[in-house]
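Objective 1b: paired records.
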Amino acid sequence: MAMETLELPCGYKLPVLAYGTGTVWMKSEGDGIDRATVDAIKEAIDLGYRHLDGAQCITPVFPSSLCRKSTNSVEQDYETEPELGLAIEESKVPRAEFFVTTKAVSPIDVEGALVTSLKKLRMEYVDLYLIHEPFSSGGSEEVLQEAWRGMERCREKGLARSIGVSNFLIPHLESILKVATVKPSVNQIECHPYLQRSELREYMKRQGIITEAFAPLTPITKASPGPIDTLCGDLARKYSVSNSAILLRWIIDQGIVVITTSGQRKRLMEYLGQLSEFKLSNEEILRISQLGREKNYRAFFVDGFGKDCFL
């Protein structure tokens, strides 16, 4: 299937559906190659996924806040960059066909961190480099601004073709925009009907910053039962697709890039195949949004966002 794309401010095409190599493939140790992860990424590539989203690791500044339900293994990392790079290499698909994202573990020394990431990824550049979260700055505007200067240096040196942020709220964006000579291309945020981020998304639209959504299936994977369940089921039957496809389409049809993941080949095929078969009407998008506002639920970085948890 020919995947829909959005154009970044720098001119590069961004596929609207990405395969995420994050939370499903977390490792508790960074050493060694995990073949199951490599094979899972290769399978996604074989099915046609070309937008691959990765990260250096989860920042342990707020270990209990990374997700709603804490575990004893609070210092688990993604640490999947070696697997992502090896999977691309073994796939024999030319590097130029991929759009690869990775994220800085913290706002400190983002350039040095990217040099290390590129070695793990076996690449000379990434297509998109993000500051993973703003919380490691401790609320310091100066730290975020210096981090953004480092991101711009990464772009100038060709280490990253485009740069952006993740999990940023409006005040965080305002801080870096004060010094930016290049605006963030994207802000990757948790977004779904129970966490719609409307004010933030409108602000980013005015600034020309593309929204990327992670955890898009939260309403059915973590927050069910809920007010959209019946409508999603009705729409799934109407279009002969899965409930997951309805939620993914709700995001894509609003001009948002969506990041999803699965270890199941059937689901990955379903996402690619079903999303090309239908689009939601404006009325259906609005109805999902209206019902979604009846419930608030954040799955990730609950403590990090604090009082702004549901913004």
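Objective 1b, second protein:
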Amino acid sequence: MNNNPFNPFPVLKTDRLILRNVEKTDLQDIFDYASDLNLTTYLTWRAHQTLADTEGFIEFILASNERHMGATWVIVWKENNRVIGTIDLSWNQKHYSAELAYALSRKYWRKGIGTEAVQEIVRFGFEEVKLERIHARCHPKNEASYKLMEKTGMIYEGTLRKSMRRKGKQEDIKIYSILKSEFEG
């Protein structure tokens, strides 16, 4: 019996989205948003400069997903079948917890898409993975990200001082979480 909810890779669907494993054919769609300097302002990774950067990113995701200790899904907009972002859940099986992270094309901001994707991953985490806690982190100036966390039921826990290395600098990071009891309540 397989007790790993990430093997086989879970494909999730919402009203407007498909969350699935990355494919090599997603190269141009991913490059289109990952090369946006404004998107990556507060992210830990730099904007992709070449298609080779994106190819490396795809290979990294595929290798990570092969380990089945969480998942990185591409976010597919059903309306046009385009990849418009990624969302991942890094599973700490021993502690029944996971970290959530996401990036979404700026063309799709302020349409509730991030909220829809996060809500589905949170549901999957609590119902399928049987987690007790899901947390997410963001740069203190990334208002759109922490507002999304709040909108999806996450509670601000605090700011971890100088806890993350981002683009060569040690910086503070805000942390939010949601517990299974809060999700069910």
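Residues 84 and 105 are 5 Å apart (CA to CA). Helices lie at 27-34, 51-66, 113-127, 143-151, 180-184.
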